[in-house]
Automatic annotation (TrEMBL), chain A:
The gene is modB. SUPFAM superfamilies: MetI-like. The keyword Cell cycle does not apply. InterPro entries: MetI-like, MetI-like_sf, ModB_ABC. It comes from Marinomonas piezotolerans. Its main location: membrane. This is Molybdenum transport system permease. It is found in: Cell inner membrane; Cell membrane.
Automatic annotation (TrEMBL), chain B:
It comes from the Bacteria. Pfam families: ABC_tran, TOBE. The keyword Translocase applies. GO terms for cellular component: membrane. The gene is modC. InterPro entries: AAA+_ATPase, ABC_transporter-like_ATP-bd, ABC_transporter-like_CS, Mo/tungstate-bd_C_term_dom, ModC_ABC_ATP-bd, Molybdenum_import_ModC, Mop_domain, P-loop_NTPase. This is Molybdenum ABC transporter ATP-binding protein. SMART domains: AAA. Keywords: ATP-binding, Cell inner membrane, Cell membrane, Membrane, Molybdenum, Nucleotide-binding, Translocase, Transport. Residues 6-239 form the ABC transporter domain. Residues 298-363 form the Mop domain. One of its GO terms (molecular function) is ATP hydrolysis activity.
Length: 230, 363
């Protein structure tokens, strides 16, 4: 398999983007999933629907709105400018923000599922054993949600690695800044460089298969639903 | 040590679940020994227990445990700050921790925690020495519940709450765990609030019973008094019977029997491995008690006493009737057929001979 200097750059950038997005999303999605999984608020449905939009919206539509919001006249753009960060579109951090929005449901769903399966009981048990709210969250809930959080991390990472439309809309095609594997691949094909395209494509194929293998393998191993009280 | 006999558990709680269910309970009970909350399904006993623990946020009223206020109209101590321990109906060990780590979870977070000696003693008492390094999924249901009980007591709570701790176990496991709970009630000085709908469980471990119906306290007192006042024969309450206190007075080695002396006379029971002089409790199932109008002679029955009928309960749809007999102040329940009731023309006040076919030794 032949990989050019630009290919390696794209791979490195993709991994950096996916890791950053995964890390930030876990921090954002866990409390959100916790709330969605336990609340009986009337706002649950609209909020869940809102955060799930990226599942069905074409990436170009989402990218378009994000581009407007982050642009010089958008409210995010105005905010970032007044904070002295400048404008986000066509930068690495613009891609990070867009990817976070785009991959949010993939991070929230597995964790929310785990929270719902967990139920109230473990937290009640912990409270009757003298554990306060934060103690309960970190020492009971988080360990029991670990498989859900792991699934969320793997899905988010893989989903970010595989995105294309939103990258083109927000990031464009700037080497070392926004040119990720999918864009690099597109460039190869456009330039009829099929040999190079084959290299990257095979890499992505292998990566995707391994990710799914990991997820299903994990699910299979858990014959006892994790988090169930014993 | 909380052996202050003055201390009381004083609870007045209301909880309204619009439409379905309302709890309106006021209880004052000594903060010592075992208080059993009894009642049919849906009578509110579990909800009451959860409310006292602080797990039902909607419950309002006041809760005073000895000299500590857990809840008043303006104040509610968070669950984790109440000196309580709670054994849930279904197993509630943390699956991500070993047995030992589960026990430590309680120890680390408790103010009054038990001493090392007490811990070792308790682990022995509950027979879980060999399980410490295991994970909950490697334990049987009975073992899990024993560990959960140990974990609760490690906290040395001011009040130990147990919500039908045997309900999720099959009969065999129940018989496995119940003696441990009896031993605990005897050996620790932690007051216990115990929810059950089994008459036998209540008879075996209770010092007093609070009987709930439709979210209210119907009656309270000694188990036999409660059984006297309320008519509970529904199958969910299990085997109907009476609790009798006594002490072992003689071992009849030759016949493999022992003599238990009670206020109404001696009861001979088989296979008891107790020492002479040991105080004990008997559970006499109502269907093991028969009645006759004259003294049984030439009978194989060993245990015969004379008493008076104090109450007859029968329902037209059932073949059986429950007769309560006063034996020198002890109330014994007998279950006989409606046919016998009719044939012997039994009525309240009548003198009858009571024969006890068998009795089970409890704690």
């Amino acid at each position: 398999m032949h990989l050019t200097e630009e290919d390696l750059q794209a791979i490195w950038l993709t991994l950096k983007l996916a890791s950053t997005v995964t890390l930030l999303l876990l921090v954002i999605a866990t409390p959100l999933a916790w709330w969605l999984g336990r609340t009986s608020s009337k706002f649950k449905a609209p909020i869940a629907a809102l955060f799930s939009l990226p599942l069905i919206l074409p990436p170009t539509v989402l990218g378009f709105y994000l581009l407007l919001a982050m642009g010089p006249n958008g409210w995010v753009g105005q905010l970032t400018q007044s904070l002295g960060i400048g404008l986000l579109p066509f930068t690495f951090w613009g891609l990070v923000v867009a990817s976070i929005v785009y991959s949010l449901p993939f991070a929230v769903y597995p964790i929310q599922n785990a929270v719902e399966q967990l139920g109230d009981r473990p937290m009640e048990v912990a409270a009757t054993l003298g554990a306060g709210p934060l103690d309960r969250f970190f020492n009971v809930a988080l360990p029991l949600l670990k498989p859900g959080i792991f699934s969320a991390a793997v899905l988010t990472f893989a989903h970010t690695v595989g995105e294309f439309g939103i990258v083109l809309m927000i990031g464009g095609n700037i080497p070392n800044e926004t040119r990720v594997i999918a864009v690099q691949m597109y460039d190869h094909v456009e330039a009829l460089e099929y040999v190079e395209a084959h290299g990257l494509a095979a890499l992505m194929l292998a990566f995707s298969f391994i990710v799914l293998l990991l997820l299903y393998g994990l699910r299979h191993k858990r014959n006892v639903p994790h988090g169930a009280m014993q | 040590m909380r052996m202050n006999h003055e201390s009381l558990l004083d609870v007045a709680l209301k909880l309204d679940r619009a439409g379905h269910f309302a709890l309106d309970v006021s209880i004052q009970t000594p903060l010592a020994g075992v208080t059993v909350l009894m009642g049919a399904s849906g009578s509110g006993k579990t909800t009451l227990l959860r409310s006292i623990a602080g797990l039902e946020k909607a419950a309002c009223g006041h809760i005073q445990v000895g000299d500590v206020c857990w809840q008043s109209s303006t104040y509610s101590l968070p669950v984790h700050k109440r000196s309580l321990a709670y054994v849930f109906q279904e197993p509630s060990l943390f699956p991500h921790l070993t047995v030992k780590q589960n026990l430590e979870f309680a120890l680390i977070r408790s103010v009054a925690k038990s001493s090392l000696d007490e811990q070792v003693h308790l682990i022995g008492l509950l027979g879980i020495e060999g399980l410490l390094e295991r994970r909950p999924e490697q334990l049987s249901g009975g073992e899990r519940q024993r560990v959960a009980i140990a974990r609760a007591i490690f906290r040395k709570p001011a009040l130990l709450m147990m919500d039908e701790p045997l309900a999720a176990l099959d009969t065999q496991r129940k018989q496995e765990v119940l003696p441990y709970i009896e031993a605990l009630a005897r050996e620790t000085d932690i007051p216990i609030l115990y929810v059950t709908h089994s008459i036998e469980e209540a008879a075996r471990i209770s010092d007093r019973v609070v009987y709930l119906q439709d979210g209210r306290v119907q009656t309270q007192g000694h188990i036999n008094e409660v059984l006297e006042r309320v008519n509970i024969t529904a199958p969910e309450f299990g085997r109907l019977g009476s609790a009798v206190s006594g002490s072992v007075s003689e071992q009849l080695e030759q016949w493999k029997l022992c003599r238990v002396t009670t206020t109404f006379g001696d009861v001979l029971i088989p296979n008891c491995n107790r020492l002479v002089g040991e105080p004990t409790k008997l559970f006499i199932q109502a269907n093991q008690v028969s009645l006759s109008l004259s003294q049984p002679v030439d009978s194989t029955l060993l245990n015969n006493y004379v008493g008076h009928i104090t109450k007859i309960t029968s329902a037209s749809e059932s073949a059986l009737a429950t007769i309560q007999v006063n034996l020198k102040g002890v109330l014994i329940l007998a279950q006989i057929t409606q046919m016998s009731l009719h044939a012997l023309q039994l009525e309240t006040g009548l003198q009858v001979w009571v024969s006890i076919k068998s009795a089970a030794l409890m704690s």
